[in-house]
Amino acid sequence: MSTSPNSQLLKGSLSVMILRLLEGRERMYGYEITQKVKELTAGEMTITEGALYPALHKLEAEGLLTTETQVVDGRARKYYSLTKIGQTEAAGRIAELTAFLDNLNLVLNLKPSL
């Protein structure tokens, strides 16, 4: 992730972002994930390879992702997809983060007392 002020916030939610992106697709490769986040956020969020691949490997080690390597244009490309457990876990983590964001929004939108 970039060293922008929100990079710490991104770091804490990266795995949920990955799970959400994969939830709606059969499979994606790393660079595709970074570009999709950049596209969806109009460039406001950028994920570096140094942040992405450790997160992908952790999700794979947890049994939430499976990988498949395919040669594309003479180069090996590793595709990631959700396992059955990953699909269930994705839904749970997304719901948890959404509830957290809703509560955070309530706190941030408090009117200052006079």
TrEMBL record:
Pfam families: PadR. InterPro entries: Metal_resp_DNA-bind_regulator (IPR052509), Tscrpt_reg_PadR_N (IPR005149), WH-like_DNA-bd_sf (IPR036388), WH_DNA-bd_sf (IPR036390). Transmembrane segments: none annotated. Keywords: DNA-binding. GO terms for molecular function: DNA binding. The keyword Ribonucleoprotein does not apply. Residues 18-90 form the Transcription regulator PadR N-terminal domain. This is DNA-binding PadR family transcriptional regulator. The lineage of its organism: Bacteria, Pseudomonadati, Bacteroidota, Cytophagia, Cytophagales.
